[in-house]
Amino acid sequence: MILPKNKPHHGFTLVELLVVVLIISILLTLGAGALKGAGGKGVTTAVATSEAIFEEARSVAIGKGTTSRVLVDVNSVKSDTYLRRIVVAYLKLDENGEPMEGDWELSSRGYSFPDGVFFSKEFSRKDFQTGGGQLDEMSLSGVSGLFNGRYLYYEFNSEGICTTGLSTSGEYRSPSFVVGHGARPKGEPDPRTTSEGRRDFGGFVVWRNGATSVFRDSSQILGDRDPNKF
């Protein structure tokens, strides 16, 4: 019996190697593009979820007939939750159904922004149109060791009105809620924008009735202001 001869095994040709290298280069380019856009997706997710948190706060205030607040964590710059966690709290009611001043209850476990996304103290204002008015700050205690601390807040009354934008004269100025993509440099308390995310900001304004309107472009938020600041 005559056995068939074994065919010699050859390696890849130069053309085949070039094709493989080209395919790898294309895949690496696509992967880098996807990573570059990750910050934008994180900001978009944070804005959408924050809108739902605001709606939760408004619904709690109306449903329970009390004052509610959306709280932004500013307790400790050493904490991973600093400028990255928001939570809803409301005033407990006494036996007569009246809110008890200073006695807050958490509505939920809150929400933490995606990695690299931070709340912007610089661009979140009581009066978005003029860029004026720092948000008020409060201390939360007696709820849980995980949540006790200092917070900036937006407030709703029992009618669902966003009282953060109300002046003493009753005039309403729409406050803004803004987040951005950045990083926390070692030794610095506040985040900074990266070169890729210098204009990667998103957010919304809050109307008197609690409804929100999302900014469609970062230029609506930043204007001529320095995008390096949070």
Automatic annotation (TrEMBL):
Pfam families in UniProt: N_methyl
Coiled coil: none
InterPro entries for the chain: N_methyl_site, Pilin-like
Highest taxon listed in the record's lineage: Bacteria
Keywords: Membrane, Transmembrane, Transmembrane helix
NCBIfam families from the UniProt entry: IV_pilin_GFxxxE
TM regions (residue ranges): 12-35
Lipoprotein recorded as keyword: no
Source organism of the structure: Haloferula sargassicola
Start-end of Basic and acidic residues biased regions: 185-199
Ranges for region Disordered: 177-199
Name of the featured protein: Prepilin-type N-terminal cleavage/methylation domain-containing protein
